[in-house]
Write a structure and sequence with these properties.
The complex is a heterodimer of chains A (about 200) and B (about 100). By secondary structure, chain A is an all-alpha fold. Chain A has a domain at about 5-90 and about 170-190. Chain A is about 75% helix and about 0% strand. The longest helix of chain A is centred in the C-terminal third of the chain and has 30 residues, at about 160-190. Chain A starts with a helix and ends in a 10-residue tail after the last helix. With about 100 residues, chain B is α+β, with helices and mostly antiparallel strands. In chain B, about 60% of the residues lie in helices and about 20% in strands. Chain B has helices at about 5-10, 10-20, 30-35, 40-50, 75-90, 95-100; strands at about 25, 55-60, 65-70. Chain B has a three-stranded antiparallel beta sheet with strand order 1-3-2. The chains are: A mainly alpha (about 200), B alpha+beta (about 100). The interface of A and B includes residues 4 and 82 of A.
């Protein structure tokens, strides 16, 4: 008898098996992080300081467009199309997200240098928990990497805003590289079919 | 086991229903890849599930490529939930109740 719960989770798992989601998120995080870092090196309140932000915005739009095109032209004809059921957030999840946001805004005012290393630890715990539950060694490795990133962010002699930008790059770059590897593996495992994709 | 259960109970159709229960809609290629069935086999199972209106099949195009979208109907979702409930009840019953 097939494992019904496992089968019902397959469409959701498929969204992460192609690597496109990870690649897109990773590239967006990296772009935003790099633009934030560049802004810190440019003269304050100058027009030039706005240029990295503008370029990053254009880059994000290009990444989103590219990701959609990649999905439609390369991934879906090989692996098929599956749209998952919209997930309803529980009250606890909404309350937790609101608390974290309020706490972040509060700590940003104090320019606390522990805030973003703390975020890295929080992401690490969430990632490790997710990886442990889903028995994914790759996700567990990413969680361990985030745990190592936290003290590095704290020890570097930089401001809290630079820490935030570095965290974005630190999370985004490996995510994008990992996504690219997963996509490559997916494309190798699912060669393009000569006939039409459907019945 | 009633007639509705018999339609879902067949392993290939149960696999199809289970996958569809976790998705809003999927296409034929995805379902074929996930179930490992041949095109003809999958088509015949889908036709059997379409008869009692458990699934809805929409034939459309993505650009110039034909696309077959499959989704569970509310009736299909309810039938699947009821089937799961009944099977869980059966499996959780003590062996003495089943074998006397």
């Amino acid at each position: 008898m097939p494992d019904i719960d496992e089968l019902a989770r397959r469409p959701t798992a498929y969204q992460f098996e192609t690597g496109v989601s990870q690649l897109t998120c990773g590239l967006i995080f990296s772009l935003l992080g790099v633009s934030d870092l560049l802004q810190r090196f440019l003269p304050e309140r100058s027009v030039a300081q706005e240029a990295p932000k503008l370029l990053a915005t254009c880059g994000v739009v290009a990444v989103l467009w590219g990701s959609k095109a990649l999905k439609e032209r390369v991934v879906l004809p090989r692996g098929g199309y599956a749209e998952v059921l919209p997930r309803k957030c529980s009250r606890l999840e909404i309350a937790a997200a609101a608390t974290i946001m309020i706490f972040t805004v509060f700590l940003m005012k104090f320019e606390d240098r522990l805030l973003f290393p703390g975020f890295a630890v929080l992401f690490a715990v969430i990632t490790l928990g997710y990886g442990w539950r889903n028995k994914s060694s790759l996700v567990v490795c990413f969680g361990v990497y985030l745990l190592c990133l936290a003290p590095v962010l704290w020890l570097l002699p930089i401001t809290h805003l630079q820490q935030a930008a570095l965290l974005e790059v630190g999370v985004g770059a490996p995510l994008a590289v990992g996504g690219a590897f997963i996509l490559r593996r997916f494309l190798k495992a699912n060669p393009k079919r000569l006939e039409t994709s459907n019945e | 086991m009633n007639e509705a259960d018999r339609i879902i109970h067949e392993p290939a159709r149960l696999t199809i229903m289970a996958i569809l229960s976790g998705a809003r809609e999927v296409d034929f290629l995805y379902l074929q890849r996930e179930t490992g069935l041949t095109k003809g086999n999958l088509s015949s199972h889908l036709a059997k599930l379409e008869e009692p209106a458990y699934i809805d099949i929409e034939k459309t195009y993505r650009g110039k490529v034909p696309l077959t979208l499959i989704r569970l109907t509310p009736a299909g979702r309810a039938a699947f939930q009821s089937y799961r409930k009944r099977m869980n009840g059966l499996l959780n019953r003590p062996q003495s109740d089943i074998f006397g």
